[in-house]
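We were asked to recover a plausible sequence for a given structure. The inputs and outputs are reproduced exactly as logged, with field labels preserved.

PROBLEM: sequence recovery
POSITIONS: 525
GIVEN STRUCTURE:
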């Protein structure tokens, strides 16, 4: 059965470290600790004294001062790994954690999972071809020597960098290595760890290279493991759930995140607030339990993105001069149907196609696979369609040789509506107002990744009010925009009332509008 040796890098809060070590070792696992040498000696002594009698606790042979972006973080990890390999010969897996990490599954579940999957879990994406690095230095991390800490020795760090760049002083990556990058939070099998340690002793050239790269904790293990272990034995992901804000800072979890964390497809989470005493107590008890019935929905990252996006709504794309100065054509009419329930709008548009001669296209700016003519690269992706929206619409008008066209837009596409209404063409808007039942909202949350099939009813109950408010807010923003030629049909209204709005929207006879308004099962879910 799997036995985990945790590799703990920490630098503060000795009492929390003691508690964390006791929780992890209480079920038979073990832990090797490196406590940063920057921290007071008394704090380290307190940890050693409190855990001295626990045979499942070991300490790194050396304490070193660690700095962000430095080799010291990798070296501290290696010291702790060496201690764990020597002290715990029966450990089958080595799992990297920090003082801010806690288990979000039981030890029983974690052991069974590792027993079933003979894999190493480590993010290892190609350094140059992947988009793992979003901003800042990329190849500069490797081809220049970095001797100074960017945060504590900023002037020296950048002086050294610019001097090397100015004089063309660069170096090559070791020829037989494919440099990889990823999160530092990994879980590796014993044979992998032993192979890595052997590699550090025999490949001094590689060690010299990584010692002067920048942020090597994101590249060293990721590169060496991929170099030593067959790809089929590597799962390119971390088993630690973590998220980052728009500013690159890790998201912190608090007491009310318990259910969310348990639903994620991971064994641990980072980072848990030091003030979240209740959450820590519940997660500590969870690890010691025999619980196996975890309902994995894995919606955490999508839900975080959705919730943090509320209140920051604006134009997604800045106006471009070639769009603002162009027009669909003065004599053309663009007829926009907007509805949150896409299937309702599609039924209405199908009836319009059937009973009029007006060409109609479904959610071309919201749905990648919308059925539309082949117009070349401009229609290849949602991004291109949206960036070149007026050019695309002109091509569609020309393709269908028409002066009138219907399209569907999601109610969230206010920026597109505003852009089209600012055009010199005639633009009309038909808003479809539907009842939003709990069943529909649950389905919407699942379709958009805010919930999964296994999301608990309690979690759904917390999500639904926010989802409902968000949909209602989109409708309010459309009405607040004050568009001319804006009419509305409602699920709560009768066909006769809706026919009046449809007739004004399409400029068709009342009989045609009435027939469209009576489309069978128009509002059915």
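RECOVERED SEQUENCE:
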């Amino acid at each position: 059965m799997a036995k985990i040796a945790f590799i703990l890098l920490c630098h503060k809060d000795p009492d929390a470290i003691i508690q964390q070590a006791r929780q992890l070792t209480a079920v038979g696992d073990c832990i090797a600790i490196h406590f940063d040498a920057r921290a007071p000696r008394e704090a380290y002594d307190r940890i050693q004294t409190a855990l001295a009698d626990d045979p499942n606790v070991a300490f790194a042979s050396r304490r070193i001062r660690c700095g962000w972006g430095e080799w010291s973080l990798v070296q501290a990890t290696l010291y702790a790994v060496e201690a764990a390999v020597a002290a715990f010969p029966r450990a089958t897996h080595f799992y990297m954690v920090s003082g801010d990490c806690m288990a979000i599954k039981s030890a029983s579940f974690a052991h069974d999972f590792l027993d079933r999957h003979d894999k190493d879990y480590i993010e290892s994406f190609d350094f140059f071809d992947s988009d793992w690095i979003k901003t800042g230095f990329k190849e500069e991390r490797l081809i220049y020597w970095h001797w100074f800490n960017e945060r504590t020795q900023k002037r020296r760090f950048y002086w050294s960098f610019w001097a090397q760049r100015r004089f063309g002083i660069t170096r090559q990556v070791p020829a037989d290595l494919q440099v990889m990058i990823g999160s530092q939070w990994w879980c590796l099998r014993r044979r992998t760890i032993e192979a890595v340690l052997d590699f550090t002793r025999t490949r001094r050239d590689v060690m010299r290279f990584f010692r002067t790269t920048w942020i090597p904790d994101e590249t060293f293990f990721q590169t060496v493991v991929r170099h030593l272990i067959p790809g089929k034995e590597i799962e390119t992901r971390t088993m630690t759930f973590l998220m980052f804000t728009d500013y690159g800072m890790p998201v912190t979890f608090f007491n009310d995140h318990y259910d969310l964390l348990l639903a994620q497809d991971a064994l641990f989470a980072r980072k848990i607030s030091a003030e979240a005493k209740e959450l820590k107590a519940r997660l500590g008890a969870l690890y010691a339990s025999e619980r196996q019935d975890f309902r994995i929905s894995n919606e955490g990252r999508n839900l975080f993105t959705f919730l943090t996006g509320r209140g920051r709504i604006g134009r997604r794309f800045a106006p471009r001069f070639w769009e603002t100065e162009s027009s669909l054509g003065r004599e053309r009419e663009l007829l926009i149907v907007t509805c949150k329930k896409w299937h309702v709008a599609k039924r209405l548009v199908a009836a319009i196609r059937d009973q009029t001669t007006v060409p109609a296209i479904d959610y071309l700016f919201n749905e990648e696979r919308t059925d539309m003519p082949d117009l070349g690269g401009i229609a290849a992706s949602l991004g291109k369609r949206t960036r070149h929206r007026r050019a695309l619409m002109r091509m569609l008008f020309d393709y269908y040789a028409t002066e009138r066209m219907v399209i569907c837009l999601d109610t969230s596409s206010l920026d597109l509506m505003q852009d089209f209404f600012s055009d010199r063409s005639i633009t009309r808007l038909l808003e479809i107002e539907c009842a939003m039942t709990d069943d529909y909202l649950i389905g919407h949350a699942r379709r958009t990744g805010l919930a999964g099939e296994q999301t608990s009813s309690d979690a759904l109950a917390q999500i639904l009010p926010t989802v409902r408010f968000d949909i209602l807010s989109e409708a309010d923003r459309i009405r607040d925009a004050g568009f001319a030629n804006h009419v509305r049909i409602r699920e709560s209204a009768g066909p006769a009332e809706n026919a009046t709005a449809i007739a004004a929207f399409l400029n068709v006879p009342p009989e045609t509008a009435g027939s469209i308004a009576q489309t069978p099962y128009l509002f059915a879910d």
